[in-house]
Amino acid sequence: MTSHTIRLLLLAASRPPVLPSRTALEQAADLYGAEDAEYLSRYTSMEALSLRLQARRLLLYGLRELGLTQRPVHIKKTKHGRPYLSLPDIAVSFSYTDRALCLLGTREKTKDGQAEELCIGADWEEKRTSQLPPASFLAADQAWTGGVDEKEDDATRILTRWCRTEAVLKAAGCGIRINPRSIEWTEHDKGRHAGMAIVHASKRKELYTWQDVQPDNQHLCAVAVKGEYKALSLQLRRVTDPE
Questions:
Q1: What are φ and ψ of residue 120, in 5° steps?
Q2: Most exposed: 8, 45, 172, 187, by fewest CB within 10 Å?
Q3: Tens digit of pLDDT for each residue in 45-96?
Q4: 85-89, 202-206, 220-224 — which is least confidently predicted?
Q5: CB atoms within 10 A of CB 106
Q6: Which residues have a Cβ under 8 Å from the Cβ of 57 and sit 6 or more positions away?
Q7: Half-sphere exposure of residue 119, counting CA atoms within 13 Å on the CB side?
Q8: One-character DSSP codes across 206-240
Q9: Burial of 213 (0-12, 13-18, 19+ CB in 10 A)
């Protein structure tokens, strides 16, 4: 069991974003760095761009919540596309549906003053019965170690597992380059909404702790952290019009 204490702050936009102005995009380089501004410029859909800008406003809001007001905060990406910040000891993950979600994580430093790398992931989905994730990417029902919740319909069950899978693979920094069917899942004895996942990556096994979150009645959400934890210390903020 990992002994380090981590803090997770989950920021969920309470309503869809408005379409961005040209000024908002022009300011991106100053606020988030040239690398992220170049990434944002690839989006030709204003709806998709508005979601990403909303997520970045959530990021700045969350950093203020953590007592960090340093600007600019450059957003960079690993070679596999996982975002990370120019700030030390702060991890980030974004997710987009009809509105944006931002997960921030911090970890206490060790006795020698060093903090181990914190790998986190978050995913959320609108509750829906159509346009479900491809079932081929999900573990078969009989491979899931927990019991089936009779109150859940098939669509909710599929979306819930998809959220967990996406959160874990985001934390692993690999996305669906790893076949989700290869993930081994377990659940805590006290409930079906938290547990462990073993990811087989590059001839090694990595352990992740996952947990379901209920941000509102319209969405399903899951977060994941690399390592084994009894429980994840998570605070949820529903944010209206982050500045």
A1: -130, 160
A2: 45
A3: 999 999 999 999 999 999 999 988 777 789 999 888 899 998 888 999 999 9
A4: 202-206
A5: 18
A6: 242, 243
A7: 17
A8: EEEEEEEE--SSSEEEEEEEES--SS--EEEEEES
A9: buried
- Measure the CA–CA gap between 62 and 130, rounded to whole angstroms: 33
The set of residues, in sequence order, having a beta carbon less than 8 Å from that of 204 and lying 6+ positions away, is: none
Calpha distance 60→241 (Å, rounded): 12
Tell me how far CA of residue 156 lies from CA of 49, 91, 142, 150, in angstroms: 28, 29, 17, 11
Please state whether beta strands 184-187 and 194-201 pair in parallel, antiparallel, or not at all (unpaired). Answer: antiparallel
Beta bridge partners of 7: 106
Tell which residue, 77, 69, 68, has the closest CA to residue 33: 77
Site of tokens 């100053």: 30
Collapse the DSSP code of 96 into the 3-class scheme (helix H, G, I; strand E, B; otherwise coil) and give the result: strand
CA distance 212 to 160: 8
